[in-house]
Amino acid sequence: MDQEQSSEMDVPNLGPLLNRTIWLLASIAALFLGLRIYSKVSRGRSLWWDDHFLVASFAALIVSTSLQSVCVALDLGKPNYAVNLATLNKMNMYSYMAGFFSLLALIWSKLSFALTLLCISSGWTKRFVWFIIITTNLVLGANATAQWVQCWPVERLWDSTVKGSCWPRETVEQVGTIGTVYSGVVDIVLAMLPWKIIWNVSINKKEKLGALFAMSMGVFAGITSFLKLTSIYAISDPNIEGAITIIAASIPMLRPLFQSKSAQPPLRGFAHNNYRHTKFDYDDDSKKKGADVEVVISISR
What we know:
Layout: H1 2-10, H2 15-41, H3 49-73, H4 85-120, H5 123-149, E1 151-152, E2 165-166, H6 169-198, H7 205-215, H8 219-227, H9 239-250, E3 270-272, E4 276-279, H10 285-297
Antiparallel strand pairs: 1-2, 3-4
């Protein structure tokens, strides 16, 4: 018995480290999302679609994280020779399910931030944001679908003894690479768009830089997406990008928590549901855009 316990202890196992990492990320994402919602609700503001999609994204992240924890309990993180063959198929099945929900979290978190940008953009910028929304859903949606249609019957995905057929491995890798690259590009583009929208707005420079910094945090999610291509273990977990995107989408809404309500004079416009149905008393288009941006910058004050 002692020899068996000793041999088990000698087996390298990265599962516990993975478990701690994914739940730490989920906890940080929960903290930022909770602060985002509190920032609005505590000031009598109602939640809008970007908030709802971010909550849905977090729910998908928790499902994915939970499934990965189940996989760890089934020997995920151990070398192949140490994995219990009796539970291998079940572990593989849960791994595919975790990857699917991780992609859902990624899609919905990007959609949340894009919806926020729709509210403060106009003209070609607004049309471009719509383009990003549509193509992101198509590309990442295709990635999520590919997980379940690459083999038929689907059970062959996790059980090699099931008779059927699967796509060539190269095809699956190409689909995954395209999705990962596009996801990273979208994160960086969405992080840079606020500079186009806010830069020429006539507001306090400190407020402007603070808003730009807060709304550009998504660039870190983009960097994470590109780093995944290098297959570095420390960042290979699919939940990392989703968690960072949730955090990045929440940060712009937290600024009112750290600012005095008297820091700025009241806006000349007013907003219902934070930044929807904004009423302006400006005639100039650029000033109108400025008022719209100010509503977002001053959200929930």
